[in-house]
Design goal:
There is one protein chain. The chain is α/β, with parallel strands linked by helices and 299 residues long. It has two domains: 2-41 and 102-298, Alpha-Beta Barrel (TIM Barrel); 45-100, Alpha-Beta Plaits. It is 33% helix and 22% strand. The strands form three sheets. The chain has a nine-stranded mixed sheet. Strands 3-6 form a two-stranded antiparallel sheet. It starts with a strand and ends with a strand.
């Protein structure tokens, strides 16, 4: 049994070929730029799209816990009271409410994963387990990986690498490709931006590389937050240090997650920050190449 918040079929940017991406809910990190903030919590959450809300009050009438506060020009949810029972969603006629997070099992998920098996084989694709942090639901993730291997499905694991090394030892035989995030240089800055230091992450990267795991290093970059020259140089140095990486990809900031935060009662730390411009991205690429690593690409 595990908890997920989305399954996306026909994905093209989360590993090779045509893929199904399973998004597991819950993450030990809390990155300020995260475009899936609904993945933070390990529990189901009610999301409010205020643009669709007509302030009719039906949700408030249906809520046993009085978590909805609806008045003239105002609708807020007290998330300390909300238990995500779903009564408000059933009562809403305007599709302004939804639940992020559903309990599921391996047996329930596998038919959806296998539905595109022919497309995986034709394109060199497969399934990617993402999040959130799939390693935070180790036994559920491990069971899914094993079943996928039994079915001949190529597997990617999209991970921050923030988990015990023993956990990676367990999943290693069943992962065809690791997509590992490298978010910031310097443990203190990493903690400021993500909530955790980065020593464990770097240690697990070293471990997986020495175990001959296939790895693509993915580097989210946000203008003004983690695009300093020392970080760009560190990205280049990792590429030089680990020449057998399958590649390093820059992941320029986009603001698609901004609106999601307010819908689940979270502050928007990057309000007003626009999607990264092509000129800025090209400048990042130029700097990394100047530091001696040419095989950089944009993810």
């Amino acid at each position: 049994m595990g908890i997920i918040f989305d399954v996306q079929r026909a994905a093209l940017h989360d590993g090779p070929g045509l893929r199904t991406v399973v998004f597991l809910k819950g993450c030990p990190l809390c990155c300020v730029w995260c475009h899936n903030p609904e993945s933070y919590s390990f529990h189901p959450q009610v999301s409010l799209n205020i643009e669709r809300c007509r302030l009719c009050g039906a949700c408030a009438d249906a809520c046993l816990w009085q978590a909805h506060i609806v008045s003239v020009g105002r609708h807020v949810i007290n998330y300390e009271l909300c238990d995500a029972c779903g009564a408000c969603i059933d009562a809403c006629n305007y599709q302004a409410l939804q639940i992020f997070g559903q309990q599921t099992t391996v047996d329930e998920l596998m038919p959806e994963i296998l539905a595109d098996l022919d497309f995986y084989r034709a394109s060199g694709g497969g399934v990617t387990f993402s999040g959130g942090e799939p390693m935070a639901q180790l036994y559920f993730t491990l069971a899914l990986l094993k079943r996928c291997q039994d079915e001949g499905v190529h597997t990617c694991l999209d991970t921050s690498c923030y988990a015990p090394q023993d956990a990676f030892t367990r999943v290693l035989p069943y992962v065809d490709l690791f997509l590992i995030d490298y978010k910031a240089t310097g443990s203190e800055l990493h903690k400021q931006l993500t909530g955790v230091p980065n020593q464990t992450i770097l240690s697990n990267l070293e471990y997986l590389y020495q175990e001959n795991a296939r790895i693509i290093l993915r580097c989210p970059l946000v203008p003004g937050l983690n695009d300093q020259p020392d970080h760009l140089q560190a990205i280049a140095q990792l590429g030089i240090k680990y020449p057998n990486l399958q590649g390093i990809e820059l992941m320029p900031y986009h603001n698609m997650g901004s609106g999601k935060r307010s819908r689940i009662g979270l502050p928007d730390h990057l309000s007003g920050l626009k999607t990264t411009s092509p000129d800025v991205i090209e400048n990042w690429l130029t700097q990394i190449r100047q530091y001696g690593y040419d095989a950089i690409r944009v993810g």
